[in-house]
Amino acid sequence: MLDAIKNLFGMDKTDYADLVKQGAVIVDVRSKSEYSGGHIKDSLNIPVDQLEKNLSKLSKDKSIITCCASGMRSASAKNILQNNGYKNVHNGGGWMSLNNKI
């Protein structure tokens, strides 16, 4: 929730472009139909309700940036990943906003 508030008020100082240059994986946690309507190039679509079943698709050695439509589901996804031992996870918020930052 705090990440979503930071994103809303422009307080997030994460350099997402640099993370992507360093090999971060962008995980879009919206539904398949939302994703098919538009997404960030090379992002991975794993709906938030399927994330725990698909952890094997994600490396704990890479930075992960979560995104969704507004930042709420991506905040949940960040928490799920951190609770499963992923250390370098960032909530990128809404995918369109994130796309403009990278």
Which features does this protein show?
Rhodanese-like_dom; GlpE_sulfurtransferase; Rhodanese-like_dom_sf; 4 strands; Rhodanese-related sulfurtransferase; transferase activity; four-stranded parallel beta sheet; alpha/beta; single chain
CATH superfamily: Rhodanese-like domain
Could you tell me the number of beta strands? Answer: 4
What structural class do helix, strand and pairing data support? alpha/beta
Using the coordinates shown, work out and report the CATH topology. Oxidized Rhodanese, domain 1
Summed up, the domain count is: 1
Q: What is the rounded Rg?
A: 12 Å
Widest beta sheet: strand line-up = 2-1-3-4
Amino- and carboxy-terminal Cα gap: 22 Å
Largest sheet: 4 strands, parallel
Oligomer: single chain
Named CATH architecture: 3-Layer(aba) Sandwich
Number of helices: 5
Strand content: 15-25%
Element layout with pairings:
Layout: H1 2-8, H2 16-21, E1 25-28, H3 32-36, E2 44-45, E3 64-68, H4 72-83, E4 89-94, H5 95-101
Parallel strand pairs: 1-2, 1-3, 3-4
